[in-house]
Design brief:
The protein has 7 helices and no strands. The chain is mainly alpha-helical. Helix 1 runs parallel beside helix 4, helix 4 runs parallel beside helix 6 and helix 5 packs parallel to helix 7.
Length: 210
């Protein structure tokens, strides 16, 4: 079967802007900065044990999650590189934080396993799409909301371990955000799988085996 160019089944959520080939744009620089924050967080949290500084890095990474996309749309700087960097930064932040938090027993391994299982499901779907010449599906707002909730939950959970007064309330807020984020993360994953299945069926054509 001949390969097809990467495409999406539904219109993009970027105001119908056509992604360009720009590299040095403000949104891409923000995404690069977020990527550099991942090893910095790991060093601060696991090596230096500077938890306050690690919380600051996590908070900045979480609050800038929406900034690069918003700026790209406002300045009409939507790029193909940005479409790859933004979800990559999201996933690296979540995975790095999960593994680090699990190592220091901030979150239980069951929670980590639930999120990693979703990532494996998505990787399998992407592998199937590549076989049919498709690129990754466009990021859905459900997935972005889930990412925002998770990146907001992690600093709160870490803060709860450092507090003496108000630790119970802070932990409850953190876990509320975390569980909602986990549920929406799986909902978004299921939506991506359904979209991938539709694309594969369309690529096989009518009458192809299911």
């Amino acid at each position: 079967m001949s390969r097809r160019p990467a495409r999406a089944e539904h219109p993009r959520d970027i105001g119908e802007q056509t992604p360009g080939d720009q590299v040095l744009t403000l949104p891409n620089l923000i995404s690069f900065g977020r990527l550099l924050g991942v090893p910095l967080f790991l060093y601060l949290f696991l090596v230096a044990r500077a938890d306050v500084a690690a919380v600051v890095v996590l908070a900045i990474g979480g609050t800038t999650d929406w900034v690069d996309g918003w700026i790209a749309r406002r300045l009409r700087q939507v790029s193909r590189l940005g479409e790859l960097l933004d979800p990559l930064a999201d996933r690296l932040y979540i995975l790095a934080t999960l593994l680090a938090f699990t190592a220091r027993e901030v979150v239980p391994w069951e929670f980590t396993a639930a999120l990693l299982a979703r990532e494996l499901l998505l990787l399998g779907s992407l592998a199937v799409l590549r076989r049919f010449g498709y690129g990754p599906p466009p990021v859905h707002y459900v997935g972005k909301t889930a990412t925002f909730l998770l990146l907001a939950a992690f600093p709160v959970l870490l803060l709860a371990t450092e507090l003496t007064a108000g630790a119970t309330a802070t932990s409850a807020i953190g876990w509320g955000l975390a569980w909602w984020g986990l549920v929406l993360y799986w909902v978004a994953g299921a939506m991506y799988v359904v979209q991938a299945a539709r694309l594969v069926r369309a690529a096989r054509g009518p009458g192809a085996a299911a």
